[in-house]
Amino acid sequence: MTHIGYFDPDACTIAEFEALIDRKTDSTTVPHASDIQREVPIYDVASLTMDRVLMAEWAAVLMDGAGIVVLKNAYADTTVLDDATAVYQDIIAAEKGSAGADHFAASGANDRVWNALEKLCLAAPDVFLRYFANPAIAAVSEAWLGPNYQMTAQVNLVHPGGAAQLAHRDYHLGFQSADVSCAYPAHVHDLSPALTLQGAVVHCDMPVESGPTKLLPFSQTYRAGYAAWRRDDFRSVFEDRYIQLPLVKGDALFFNPALFHGAGANSSTDIHRMANLLQVSSAFGRTMETVDRRGMSKALYPYALAAKAALSTAEMNAAIGACAEGYSFPTNLDRTPPVGGLAPETQAALFARALAEGMDQTVFETALDAMAGRQLS
Prior knowledge:
Blueprint: H1 14-21, E1 35-37, E2 40-44, H2 52-63, E3 68-72, H3 79-95, E4 110-113, H4 116-123, H5 125-132, H6 135-145, E5 150-158, H7 178-183, H8 186-191, E6 196-202, E7 214-215, H9 225-228, H10 232-241, E8 252-255, E9 261-262, E10 273-281, H11 293-306, H12 313-323, H13 347-357, H14 361-375
Parallel strand pairs: 2-3
Antiparallel strand pairs: 1-2, 3-8, 4-5, 5-10, 6-8, 6-10, 7-9
């Protein structure tokens, strides 16, 4: 393949994409699967041994295969799901009308609990213990990310009439704007999916009419997908070709974050579709040293403001980039809901905005402190 330094949305080709998603799952590559449904291998958790042979099989499916695994009866005893659902329902009721609404859907169409992991642990640690004492979820997380992964979760409750999402890819690059995503070199597009695993624990039976996630098998293998997924023609292919799998309470679904996917429309009249969306991150998503970038930004700002006319935009951006935090996450999404996009304003973007607006030092420091306060859990 010709070396590609950067991906350009205009250079993405439907023909190449369709050649990849036309593939079929070879049953010999998934010997531990109890079934294959619409190219997706289905695994009966009760019959599995959580060893490295199985984990290697899952990793191969997520990387080069369909990109999706379904774990049937990941929770053989669903009592703990009922207990967790009751806790989540209490949290949803307590948070009704808060500013941290779900930015993925219109108000009232669904309810989302941000940082459901921490909230469940603090509200009902006994339930949390039983919920996450699940070797199958641990094994699939480690299969994709290796040991020492970091678990996060967000509960999504979609009511009857809830609309479908547009096709998209997920965190990290999927949460960036098109321009920002394409500013990352092609090899980062290849690496980004290996930093996160997307999953969902099914809290109620989900027939197709309730809108289980729409999935496009093999679409994660299209290297330029982070550049392409916003294009109308790629989304049209997704709408023509996606699959949905009916799920039952206690199942779990995991997929490569680069897979083209989107929540389905809840066309039922009486099913309130609830899933706990697990977003598991690599242990390697950390810096070597702890750095007080807020303190650095406060110290640098008056000098940057004074040098605004002397430095070029590129020079100033380079200095800001070495000083301020340029990434939105991790954050507290209850307090920092994204406005006009999927990611909240970064410290570096605030620094640049402050320079452009000519903020004085006190206002800038207050804004930095307020941002830090909102990001804390």
